[in-house]
Write a structure and sequence with these properties.
Chain lengths: 245, 306
């Protein structure tokens, strides 16, 4: 609702994902990659774009109210933090779905990407991406509640940092230790590996989906607790008043 | 026993930052506000007014002390308390939202889905013409009206208004004051208002508290507070030429080169005597005014004595 009238919200949803898809797709053609290799990197592009769109909507819970100096009005209302986050996430899911659909259609049209997942598996993969995004969004909110305005930069950088470790354009097995283990602790890694298993790439762990879901649930619970504690701390130190103007 | 709207006991607030020494904004503040009262918190910039109402409205958690709103512990049952209060502080709201959307958004934050609530507020605060205008495109006065309308969205029993007319033109400020009074009268709610506009406080508030350096230095009705001063009235005398201290008079005064303020109990009877003393000393008088002591005078005197 807060971003409804904003042009940049549409820009975020369409412009950058398309630019990334076209540039990476053309790179694949230039390097004469095979059909499956192209699929591998295109899945990465799609994941990166969708995760970024959804997570930033969750992060906007803090950011937009902080920028408009009206965070105090949200804090003083009885709506709990998790509901604010879930509301923003649902809006992000809508935007993410639009972007996802568009990217898949364009990938097929421009780079012969064929969507070979069975419907149920596709739904699980998509939900996995959406769930991973809420984790990044809440983590961003926690950073803002702890470090204040200086942490807002993470809204645009954290997704990129995480996607380096979860093997967006490569399998995590090529990462040196301890980054490889770190990569396996990120749920998106497992969701990407699950998707790629349908294109003949074997996953690092046997049941990527189970690991992805398990990690997501554990992190979600932990992050919601940490977010509540961070909010209380920010109310005690006076940071919320600084964030409100 | 009647439950008080606000009970605040020995509240301390220390702002802390990483590795930095804390800044103490409130130092043992205690106050009670009765139901239906309009209570003013007055003080200069940086005195702790905004911090105090941020604590009372549960935005901040105090370092020490107890706050009860409508008899409920504000920090043990925070959500219960939040359902029954609201606040405005500054005129900022999300810039991209239109007037109607903004009220709808905040209504949903309180679980209010009845669109009539929003329509009534739009009508009460004279925002009909602007219902589809983005917040950023509203004038300062209309931004404040929208913010006030938002503050009444959950039909609160206690409302905190932080400098509701600050930075507004005098005519808009007067209109906003009228709207506040009208709404309060209709809804029988308790209002805690901060301002550094003493006239506004005198006009709106049943009781006021003066805050300075995070401490309440005096509290009471305007009349009670005026008794803190040395006199009830003042005689202001303007001079034709600059005059230096001391003046040849037995009455207490403040001199400002071209004018002097004399503090007396009864201006009408003392003014001729003052003028006579000044004339005898050869001081030429340009004008004379008689005024009642204002809250501003009380505040200045209290500040100096503290």
């Amino acid at each position: 609702m807060v971003t409804k009238n904003e042009f940049y919200a549409i820009f975020e949803m369409l412009f950058w994902p398309l630019v990334t898809l076209v540039s990476v797709g053309l790179l694949g053609e230039f390097l004469y990659l095979g059909k499956n290799e192209v699929a591998f990197i295109i899945i990465g592009v799609i994941a990166l774009s969708v995760v970024h769109i959804v997570q930033i909507d969750v992060t906007y819970v803090m950011l937009l109210d902080m920028w408009s100096m009206s965070l105090k009005y949200l804090i003083v209302s009885p709506v709990p933090f998790y509901r604010m986050v879930v509301g923003a996430w649902l809006f992000g899911v809508v935007r993410g779905t639009v972007s996802l659909t568009l990217l898949i259609l364009l990938s097929s049209a421009l780079f012969n990407f064929s969507f070979e997942l069975p419907l149920a598996a596709a739904i699980v993969f998509t939900l996995g991406l959406f769930a991973s995004s809420i984790l990044i969004g809440i983590f961003n909110c926690v950073l803002i509640l702890i470090f204040g305005r200086r942490a807002e930069i993470f809204a645009w950088t954290l997704t990129a940092v995480i996607l380096i470790f979860c093997g967006i354009y490569y399998p995590v097995t090529i990462l040196p230790e301890p980054f490889r283990t770190f990569g396996l602790l990120i749920p998106i890694t497992h969701f990407l590996e699950y998707f790629r298993s349908f294109y003949g790439f074997s996953p690092t762990l046997q049941n990527p989906l189970v690991f992805g879901i398990l990690e997501t649930v554990i992190y979600l619970l932990l992050l919601l607790i940490v977010a509540e504690l961070s909010m209380r701390r920010a109310r005690k130190t006076g940071l919320v008043l600084k964030l409100s103007g | 026993m009647r439950v008080k709207a606000v009970e605040c006991r020995d509240v301390w607030m220390v702002y802390r930052n990483f590795m930095e020494k804390g800044v103490t904004a409130l130092r043992g503040v205690s106050l009670d506000v009765e139901n239906g009262e309009i209570f003013g918190i007055l003080g200069p910039n940086g005195a702790g007014k905004t911090t105090l109402i941020s604590v009372l409205s549960t935005i901040l958690v105090p370092s020490k002390g107890e706050v009860r709103i409508l008899g409920i512990d504000a920090f043990k049952n925070t959500n219960k308390v939040r359902e029954r209060l609201n606040i405005t502080s500054g005129v900022r709201l999300p810039w991209g939202m239109k007037v109607y959307e903004c009220l709808r958004f905040y209504a949903l934050c309180y679980g209010i889905t009845d669109k009539n609530v929003i329509e009534k507020l739009i009508a009460d605060f004279e925002l009909e013409r602007y219902r589809n205008t983005r917040f950023d495109d509203l004038s300062a006065g209309n931004k404040q009206k929208l913010n006030l309308a938002r503050a009444f969205i959950n039909d609160p029993e206690v409302v905190f208004l932080d400098e509701p007319t600050a930075n507004l033109d005098p005519d808009i400020a007067r209109k906003i004051r009228e709207m506040i009074l009208q709404t309060i009268k209709e809804k029988h709610i308790t209002v805690i208002l901060t301002t550094h506009n003493m006239r506004e406080a005198e006009m709106l508030c049943d009781r006021v508290a003066f805050i300075k350096d995070g401490k309440i230095i005096a509290e009471g009705t305007s009349e009670e507070l005026k008794r803190f001063t040395k006199a009830n009235e003042k005689v202001i005398v303007g001079f034709k030429k600059p005059v230096s201290s001391p003046l040849p008079t037995t009455y207490p005064y403040e001199l400002d080169e071209n004018s002097a303020i004399f503090y007396v109990d009864d201006a009408e009877s003392f003014a001729p005597k003052i003028l006579m003393e000044l004339s005898k000393a050869g001081i030429e008088i340009e004008y004379t005014k008689m005024e009642e002591i204002t809250l501003e005078d009380v505040f200045i005197e209290l500040s100096e004595s503290n």
